[in-house]
Amino acid sequence: MEYQFLLVKPNVRPGVTVVQINRPKELNALNRTVMEEIGAALTAADADEACRCVVLTGNERAFAAGADIKEMADASAVEMLNRDQFARWEIIRKTKKPVIAAVSGFCLGGGCELAMLCDMIVASESAQFGQPEVNIGVMPGAGGTQRLTKAVGKALAMEIALTGRFFPAQKMLEAGLINRVVPTELYFQEAIKLAEEIAQKPPVAVRLIKESINAAFETHLDEGLMRERKNFYLLFATEDQKEGMAAFVEKRKAEWKGK
């Protein structure tokens, strides 16, 4: 399959496939095509018997700086509901083979949510994590309020999501969100090394271990995700959403009305 916004490299090491988001000018912003292609690439990896583990990455400047705001800025609540854009995320979530996120630079909003969909995260010293959706009048909509809270706890999740600030990789390591932090020039190689080690393990056992750990982690997650998504869509009926996204596109400061 040919991809518009991905570089897919099978067997970079025995059993290891690399999926690289390739929208450098947009800081790898996640539009619907990108998410469809990631889903397709991971589905193909699942079907490839030679693939035992996947590394999902961006570039040194950005893993993914968030969702593509221009796709959503003028949408209504009903339009967002009818798009069912999170169906693409469910495909990624249900990938059977282990997926390691190799993260450097910006890992924000949808990018942070995408990294949390992966099974492990290897980060560079320059990586910055955050859920800044509040700054444009909305909230995380692809699992951010749910997975982040389960990973780092209520207090820190509240601070991350309510302030919209960016947090360094070392802080996220201490909080338990990521596996390790390495120098920027080594983060990708470290992720490949980890993937290669896992690829050498028995594949059926690896699959069932992943399934079992996710079952423990995601208890009651479906209900939380449903609530999150309804609230996310509801925010597209607010004036602040229109103002926040318009201000982002126009590169100006937003003026909130609380309406």
Q: Would you spell out the secondary-structure blueprint of this structure?
A:
Elements: E1 6-13, E2 16-21, H1 32-47, E3 53-57, E4 62-64, H2 77-83, H3 87-93, E5 99-103, E6 106-108, H4 110-117, E7 120-124, E8 128-130, H5 144-152, H6 154-163, E9 167-168, H7 169-175, E10 180-182, H8 187-199, H9 203-217, H10 221-234, H11 239-250
Parallel strand pairs: 2-3, 3-5, 4-6, 5-7, 6-8, 7-10
Antiparallel strand pairs: 1-2, 8-9
Detailed description of the structure:
With 259 residues, the protein is α/β, with parallel strands linked by helices. The protein has a single domain (6-187, 194-205), classed as 2-enoyl-CoA Hydratase, Chain A, domain 1. The protein is 46% helix and 17% strand. Strands 1-2-3-5-7-10 form a 6-stranded mixed β-sheet, with helices on both faces. A 4-stranded mixed β-sheet has the order 4-6-8-9. The protein is globular. The mean pLDDT is 92.
CATH topology: 2-enoyl-CoA Hydratase, Chain A, domain 1
Structural class: alpha/beta
CATH superfamily: 2-enoyl-CoA Hydratase, Chain A, domain 1
Number of strands: 10
Largest sheet strand order: 1-2-3-5-7-10
Mean of all residue-level pLDDT scores: 92
Query: Uncertain runs with pLDDT below 50, 5 residues or more?
Result: none
Helix content: 40-55%
Q: Tell me, what is the CATH class?
A: Alpha Beta
**Helix and strand element order:** EEHEEHHEEHEEHHEHEHHHH
Radius of gyration: 18 Å
**At CATH's second level, what is the architecture?**
Alpha-Beta Complex
User: How many structurally independent domains?
Assistant: 1
Could you give a short account of the major beta sheet? Answer: 6 strands, mixed
Strand content: 15-25%
Q: What form results from the Cα inertia axes? A: globular
- The total count of helices amounts to 11
- The rounded distance between the terminal residues' Cα atoms is 45 Å
